[in-house]
Amino acid sequence: MGELKFEPIWEPLFLKDGNPYTESLFNHTMKPPFRNLHLFEKPYDVTDANLILKWSTGVVGATGMGKSNFIKVVATGLLRAKPIYAPMFFLDHTGELRGLYEYFKRDIIEITHLVESIEQVVVNPISGRTKKIYHTYGARDAEAFVAGFKSYYLDRSEFLGQRTSVLAYLHDFLTETSNIKRRQMREGKKNRPHLFIFDEIHNYDPEGSLSTVGCDDDTLPKLVRDDIVMYFGEMRKYGAPVLGASQRPARWDKDTLSQTNNKVILPLIEDADIDQVRGKLPPHIKRNLPQLMTEMRLEKNRGKAFLSTVHGFAIPRILPCDRHIPDLGSTPGVAEALGWEEGETGEQIFS
Fold this sequence. Notes:
By secondary structure, the protein is an alpha/beta fold. It contains 12 helices and 12 strands.
């Protein structure tokens, strides 16, 4: 571990049948693809699917420290499981995950149309004040998402200047998905998990006041934030776990961050970001987190993360994403930053 002071505190997870590979999350007929989802060097990999698909997850770290790599490793493991066990909804704020979409085009549907029609209604007959009502494809796409095996990808950067359309679509999609999943649970139907991945989540669930700039309907930012808070707080019980990533956790709503059962903390630089995260950790971890962040920024510790979960604490190294998946971000991938050779895999390096 080098200078990293925390020794792993980890109790292996053995579920009801004693086999973490075959125990189901929601019923005994569904077999999650644990063997396809390895995020960390051993011995932490056997519980990863439980951690991601059963609990809400927060991934934080300064730019270039591996957040996108972590998301890609999660998504790649789930997309390569055949048949598809857990379809995903990607909200990509900057387009950094587009390389993942391009690589898995056969299994991911890109959302290219948000709004079906816009209706202008009079909300105050005396003043003549009008309001635009956006009728989106969100509810329709949500039905197809829950019923099928395809993942859905929304690249926010493709809709610059269309904030109202994006928020209206998101609200309709999240609301309808929630309604369907709850109804399935009430009716006793099989409820396959659907993972929601929100990149740069602080733009949609910010700490403090909400900005309504560029939005025709000033209620939409609050509605979407309420949807996200509801998903983090409740929807894992209905088979809709959430993974939120942010490079500025100080700007992410602290109440939502506190509801993440799993925290993957990559190196942070700003004191405000470290303080926001450490406030959600046990006292003995809080005291040492700033020093830990400093040591994790050392070159020899690149790729390591502090992992806080419902099962304990550890400092594993995150495996690199498949090198064949294009990295369209502005920073090098973890493998490149660590200087790994072409064709090397995490399994080869850590075995």
